[in-house]
Design brief:
The protein has 539 residues and is α+β, with helices and mostly antiparallel strands. The protein has helices spanning 2-16, 23-32, 36-52, 56-73, 76-92, 96-113, 116-132, 136-153, 161-244, 247-336, 339-348, 369-375, 378-398, 424-447, 481-491, 502-508; strands at 354-367, 402-407, 410-415, 454-469, 475-479, 498-501, 512-522, 526-536. Among the domains are: 18-188, Serine Threonine Protein Phosphatase 5, Tetratricopeptide repeat; 354-536, Alpha-Beta Plaits. It has 16 helices and 8 strands. Strands 1, 2, 3, 4, 5, 6, 7 and 8 form an 8-stranded mixed sheet that branches. The chain is elongated, with a radius of gyration of 47 Å. Mean pLDDT is 79; it is low at 1-19, 155-164 and 234-240.
Length: 539
């Protein structure tokens, strides 16, 4: 009974201090989760937060994932919600065709399963899309569908006068939209009729002008025929005169006429040749100018293209460098601060101190560090410390424990901070793994005749205050009596052992084997109940 009571207290405490989750944290939990229901909830939350942060592309992607997962688990309400969310994201991206398809899907699902609010949202958005595309008929169709749906669903209202009045208001608004659209459609139809009348009047005017041109042409033909008649009369007169001439005169006249005609034809051919030569020369000049102008434009465009391409490459390289530097700075920041604290620092440029009622603090310190340091060169000493602390980092990251700092040969970490693991059991498991690693390293160094490290570990659970200090060099640290108590437990620990306080013992009692040490005096703390962890309990 005591075990279940303790578990309930821990659950309530973790829920009380659970912070708001960011998109990155939700994505991490989404990727780790194997339950379809949990993945559905995470995907929907990611889509909502991304849309609120104006990241419509990511919102659309995760909303469609949530929609598919809702179909698989049979959650019709969440399926319709996710479809509306995905459609809204596409609408913000101005992918109106895709948005209309998704709102159609949300409309059908919501109407089939009686989700009135989603039906009205979908029809209103479909009407907005039609209006943005100037498709009045489509907008009128969805306005009519809304009115029809509101009339059909009005009889099923059982929520009292307020719900009925709300439905009547929605119906009146939809009918008003319907009338407005009909008026706009009628206006568009009237403009079309006006254009047709204008076209008819212009066509009639063209026909009248064509008739006038035909009449003028007929008059010209009539005048030409009269001229031909006069020429024929002159020819007849000329023929009568020719009859009266002598044969020699006729021959001379014919020869002169022939010569004059040949001379006239030669002049005509020379004039035509000269004209053709001038036209050809002008054409060559024009073509030469066109070619020069085209080559100049081509050179100008090519130079501009090369300049833009060079600038684009330089900009791309600079963006890549900036992105790489940003990734490096983010990675460095996450190595120094917890993820939630790092996000707050980037967004607000400062971090407020926070109190955590149940944090577990672990102190690790090497025994006889001064003697070992005297036997090793400074370079070798730093290498040994780096080997130990790097393995400690890997162990605590496996159990989601936050590293606080290292002070000389001391290593300090804690759990239960921000979104990190709040279970004391995991930090005890991490301490046992650290001692196992040091035991293996000790055996290896002894076989080589080299000095080795023995460590003492102290663990205590209680309230702490955590925050970031410094203006230029940030440092994440924790303060409180819990930190001091953990340090005193480490001082009273034997090398190679894990010393745990009574508070941490009660929270992890059923998972380990223990050795009660009794009350042990601690500096400035009086006497404290202490326990050695002898191993993990086997069931």
């Amino acid at each position: 009974m005591m075990r279940y009571l303790t578990a309930l207290i821990l659950l309530f405490s973790s829920l009380q201090w659970l912070p708001a989750q960011s998109v990155a944290e939700l994505e991490a939990r989404f990727n780790r989760s194997s339950s379809k229901t949990e993945r559905l909830n995470f995907a929907y939350q990611i889509a909502e937060k991304s849309l609120a942060a104006n990241n419509a592309k990511k919102a659309s992607d995760f909303a469609m994932r949530a929609n598919q997962l809702a179909v698989e688990v049979g959650d019709k309400r969440r399926e319709a919600d996710a479809a509306v969310l995905a459609a809204d994201a596409e609408f913000r991206l101005r992918n109106y065709k895709e948005a209309a398809g998704r709102f159609n899907r949300a409309w059908n699902t919501s109407r089939n399963y009686g989700f009135r609010d989603l039906v009205l949202i979908s029809s209103e958005k479909l009407q907005d899309i039609a209006m943005k595309q100037n498709d009045m008929k489509e907008a009128l169709k969805w306005s009519t569908e809304t009115v029809k749906y509101l009339k059909e669903s009005g009889g099923g209202v059982r929520g009292g006068g307020e719900s009925l009045r709300k439905l009547e208001n929605q119906l009146a608004a939809a009918e008003a939209d319907n009338r407005s659209l009909r008026e706009q459609l009628a206006a568009a139809t009237g403009q079309t009729q006006l254009l047709q009348n204008t076209y008819q009047s212009q066509l009639k005017e063209v026909e009248e002008k064509s008739q006038m041109v035909i009449s003028e042409k007929d008059a010209a033909l009539s005048q030409a025929s009269q001229t031909a008649l006069r020429a024929d009369s002159a020819a007849k007169v000329f023929s009568l005169r020719v009859k009266n001439l002598t044969e020699d005169q006729m021959i001379d006249s014919i020869v002169k006429a022939q010569q004059e005609r040949e001379l006239q034809e030669k002049k005509t051919r020379l004039a035509e040749a000269e004209l053709l030569r001038e036209q050809s020369e002008n054409m060559r000049n024009v073509l030469a100018l066109v070619v020069v102008f085209v080559l100049f434009l081509a050179g100008l465009f090519y130079a501009r293209f090369r300049a833009k391409k060079r600038m684009a490459n330089e900009l791309s390289q600079k963006n890549a460098l900036i992105e790489e530097e940003q990734k490096r700075s983010n990675s460095l920041l996450l190595n120094i601060l917890p993820p939630a604290i790092a996000e707050e620092l980037k967004s607000r440029n400062k971090v407020a101190a926070r109190k955590y009622e149940q944090a577990t603090v672990m102190f690790i310190d090497f025994k006889g560090f001064t003697n070992v340091a005297e036997r090793l060169s400074p370079e070798r000493l730093v290498e040994e410390l780096d080997l130990c602390f790097s393995n400690f980092d890997q162990i605590i990251s496996k159990y989601r424990i936050e590293k606080i700092k290292t002070v000389g040969d001391a290593y300090i970490c804690a759990s239960g901070l921000s979104d990190m693991n709040a279970s004391p059991s995991d930090i005890v498991k991490a301490a046992l793994e650290m001692q196992d690693f040091l035991l293996g390293l000790k055996a290896e160094r002894m076989s080589q005749g080299l000095p080795y490290f023995d460590a003492r570990v102290g663990i205590h659970t209680g309230p702490v205050v955590a925050g970031v200090v410094g203006a230029k060099k940030f440092a994440y640290d924790i303060w409180g009596d819990t930190v001091n108590t953990a340090a005193r437990l480490e001082e009273q620990c034997e090398p190679g052992r894990v010393n745990v306080s009574e508070d941490a013992y009660w929270l992890a009692k059923y998972e380990f084997e223990w050795q009660h040490r009794g009350k042990i005096p601690a500096k400035n703390k009086g006497t404290l109940d202490m326990y050695y962890v002898t191993g993990i309990k086997q069931y």
